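Lecture notes, part 5. Sequence design as translation. It can be helpful to think of inverse folding as translation between two languages: the language of shapes and the language of residues. The source text, in structure tokens, appears below.
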């Protein structure tokens, strides 16, 4: 590399390319999202547990849940798909069946999920009063609104949507192994009152849903309603999550159009 290409290099001194930095790349996170299939896969062990437990007792339910989670994991390996959700699902199922097997009560299969929902509700709802709504933090990491990459959003598919978001990101740097950083926003999203308000309402929506799941599940857990616990986790799981994702993507798309229009240069 010549000194003209690197003004910081002194004459006669060869410029040294900086080594790779350890960064948390949002594009890599997008690639690991499982899409609709990942969401469906996460519900299969619960269905297997509820059915097997109703037919042949707790032991059958435990083995059915573990077996289903393992099958999902293996199928993703065979298809060379992202296994991140399968691994997390396998871990969650393992914890759930371990608690149920240790206590000898089928209802304890749902204890870990109840605790998880309660913690998520507290974290999400608690992030709003301090003006750091967690949905906004995650959304701005995965798809920064000032880039406007989701301004043309359409609900044609969860995986496809994220695929288009990644495709709309800046083109990769010609240097192998390096990606140019996203341009910094002129105005931080928390300083835009409309954006902050929208992300706060979205965070309340997600936090309220997790809280509802936890409260309903605790009431059913107290009454030892195992079948209803399973049914409730399914009804308040995939369908509600799909609706929340649709609403979130629609709102985020409007925020991208809002910030994109504000950042557009004014022409005579």
């Amino acid at each position: 590399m010549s000194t003209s290409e690197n003004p910081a290099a002194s004459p006669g001194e060869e410029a040294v390319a900086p080594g790779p930095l350890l960064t948390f790349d949002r594009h890599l996170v997008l690639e690991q999202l499982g899409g609709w299939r990942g969401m469906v896969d996460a519900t299969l062990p619960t269905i297997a547990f509820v059915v097997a437990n109703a037919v042949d007792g707790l032991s059958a339910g435990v083995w059915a849940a573990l077996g289903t989670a393992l099958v999902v994991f293996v199928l993703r390996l065979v298809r060379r798909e992202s296994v991140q959700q399968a691994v997390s699902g396998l871990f969650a199922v393992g914890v759930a069946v371990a608690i149920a097997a240790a206590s000898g009560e089928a209802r304890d299969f749902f204890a870990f999920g109840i605790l998880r929902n309660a913690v998520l509700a507290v974290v999400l709802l608690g992030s709003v009063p301090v003006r750091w709504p967690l949905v906004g933090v995650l959304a701005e990491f995965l798809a920064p609104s000032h880039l406007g990459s989701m301004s043309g959003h359409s609900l044609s598919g969860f995986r496809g949507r994220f695929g288009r978001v990644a495709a709309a990101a800046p083109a990769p740097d010609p240097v192998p192994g390096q990606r140019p950083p996203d341009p910094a926003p002129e105005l931080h999203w928390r300083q835009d009152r409309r954006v902050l308000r929208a992300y706060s309402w979205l965070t309340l929506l997600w936090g309220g849903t997790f809280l509802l799941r936890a409260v309903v599940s605790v009431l059913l857990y107290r009454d030892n309603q195992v079948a209803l616990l399973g049914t409730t986790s399914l009804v308040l799981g995939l369908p509600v999550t799909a609706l929340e994702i649709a609403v979130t993507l629609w709102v985020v798309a409007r925020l991208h159009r809002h910030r994109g229009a504000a950042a557009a240069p004014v022409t005579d």
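The translated text above is only one of many valid answers, since several sequences can fold into similar shapes. Confidence is low (pLDDT under 50) at residues 1-10, 12-33, 155-174.
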